């Protein structure tokens, strides 16, 4: 039964992958996203090196009160049509979209100091059961394989099913995540947290704070898109 189900999923996945075409504009392309779409998605803009918010090289907020993470690397600004791919990946279980989704991020990481390991943002087992997978784990596995960086998927765990962060203010988000995560082992000196979208940064800040308290010296954040 499992084998038959896997074959069905593989066939469905193959039909959704436009072979030899760009997955956005459907023009001929050797890569999932063609150079034109990739250039259009990047939308060059000055961003804070610490939090990746639009603005100067170091924004006023980070200069006044630096976040617990050290730097953010995002593939593209969050918005259509890229956000539609993310939505299909997360909510329609189109896990094969990790390939085109990671392409812009990989392009931004060419000059970045690679970490000792990648740590996907954890998901509580109940939410993972409902969704069928943790999208951050899939992304970390793909990026880790592409860059030769090990993935420590179980280093941080989610202790409880928190309320959805969407729609909450910054203070409510922080309260919602209080005590939500814990470590399962020693932390490396330098790691990168991997997630799909960074919005306010509250989740990665809570994780970075936990990791820094355990002795981690440098925490990067890698995300597909920055809202």
TL;DR?
By secondary structure, this protein is α/β, with parallel strands linked by helices.
Give a verbal description of the structure.
With 227 residues, the chain is of the alpha/beta class. 39% of the residues lie in helices and 15% in strands. The protein contains 9 helices and 6 strands; from the N terminus they run αααβααβααβαββαβ. It has helices spanning 2-16, 35-42, 60-64, 82-91, 98-108, 125-131, 135-147, 170-176, 202-213, and strands spanning 71-77, 117-120, 156-158, 181-183, 190-198, 218-226. The strands form 2 sheets. A 4-stranded parallel beta sheet has the order 1-6-5-2. Helix 5 (98-108) packs across helix 7 (135-147). The longest helix is centred in the first third of the chain and has 15 residues, at 2-16. The radius of gyration is 18 Å and the shape is globular. The N and C termini lie far apart (41 Å). The model has no long low-confidence stretch (mean pLDDT 88).
Largest sheet features:
4 strands, parallel
How large is the share of residues in beta strands? 15-25%
| Derived structural class | alpha/beta
**Number of beta strands:** 6
List the helices and strands and how they pair.
Blueprint: H1 2-16, H2 35-42, H3 60-64, E1 71-77, H4 82-91, H5 98-108, E2 117-120, H6 125-131, H7 135-147, E3 156-158, H8 170-176, E4 181-183, E5 190-198, H9 202-213, E6 218-226
Parallel strand pairs: 1-6, 2-5, 5-6
Antiparallel strand pairs: 3-4
């Amino acid at each position: 039964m499992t084998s038959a189900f896997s074959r069905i999923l593989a066939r469905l996945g193959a039909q959704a992958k436009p072979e030899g075409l760009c997955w956005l504009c459907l023009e001929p392309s050797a890569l999932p996203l063609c150079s034109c779409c990739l250039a259009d998605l990047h939308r060059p803009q000055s961003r804070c090196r610490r939090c990746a918010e639009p603005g100067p090289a170091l924004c006023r907020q980070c200069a006044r009160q630096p976040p617990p993470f050290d730097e953010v690397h995002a593939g593209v600004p969050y918005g259509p049509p890229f956000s539609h791919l993310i939505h299909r990946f997360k909510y329609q279980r189109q896990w094969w979209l990790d390939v085109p989704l990671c392409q812009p991020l990989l392009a931004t990481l060419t000059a970045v100091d690679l970490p000792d390991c990648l740590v996907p943002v954890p998901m509580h087992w109940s939410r993972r059961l409902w969704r069928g997978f943790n999208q951050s784990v899939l992304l970390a596995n793909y990026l880790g394989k592409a860059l030769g960086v090990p993935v420590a998927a179980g280093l941080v765990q989610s202790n409880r099913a928190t309320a959805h962060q969407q729609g909450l203010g910054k203070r409510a988000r922080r309260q919602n995540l209080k005590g939500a995560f814990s470590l399962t082992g020693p932390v490396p000196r330098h790691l990168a947290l991997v997630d799909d979208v960074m919005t306010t940064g509250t989740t990665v800040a809570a994780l970075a704070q936990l990791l820094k308290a355990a002795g981690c010296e440098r925490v990067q954040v890698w995300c597909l898109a920055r809202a």
